[in-house]
Write a structure and sequence with these properties.
By secondary structure, the chain is mainly α. It has five helices and no strands. Keywords: Membrane, Transmembrane, Transmembrane helix.
Length: 132
């Protein structure tokens, strides 16, 4: 089960990287005119991802990925491995829960503000068959 727990941990880290790196990419993309950062799907998934994190924190619900990883690790009863040690150090910090809640909500607000300041591309309307 340790391998499965490590997989959950790496997926968790990838989601964090997407959320944090996505915001950086949006601003860099606006600066350097990268069209993909204005894609509606990318932007919608990005906003939804941090929105879920913030809502879970505000509701006092533990991250499901953290809970799943903990369950898998406790079942395995193994010692700390390389992936858990290094990826875990990037993800987990010993701080009060309210600090994380404030950080997640503030980051979600920043992502929402970015939606307004660096808006996604407008949808292209297709001409209907009647207008031809």
């Amino acid at each position: 089960m340790t391998g499965l727990a490590d997989t959950v941990l790496v997926v968790h880290a990838a989601i964090v990287l997407f959320i944090v790196g996505g915001l950086v990419a949006i601003w860099l993309g606006a600066l350097f005119n990268w069209p993909w950062v204005r894609g509606r799907v990318f932007r919608g998934v990005h906003l939804a991802a941090i929105g879920v994190v913030a809502l879970l924190a505000l509701s006092g619900i533990a991250c499901p990925l953290t809970v799943l990883e903990d369950c898998l690790r406790n079942d395995a009863g193994a010692t700390e491995g390389f992936i858990q040690r290094w990826v875990g150090r990037m993800l987990y910090y010993e701080l009060p829960a309210w600090v994380f809640t404030v950080a997640y909500v503030a980051f979600a607000a920043l992502v929402a503000l970015t939606w307004r300041l660096v808006p996604p591309a407008r949808r292209v309307r297709r001409a209907s068959a009647r207008s031809q």
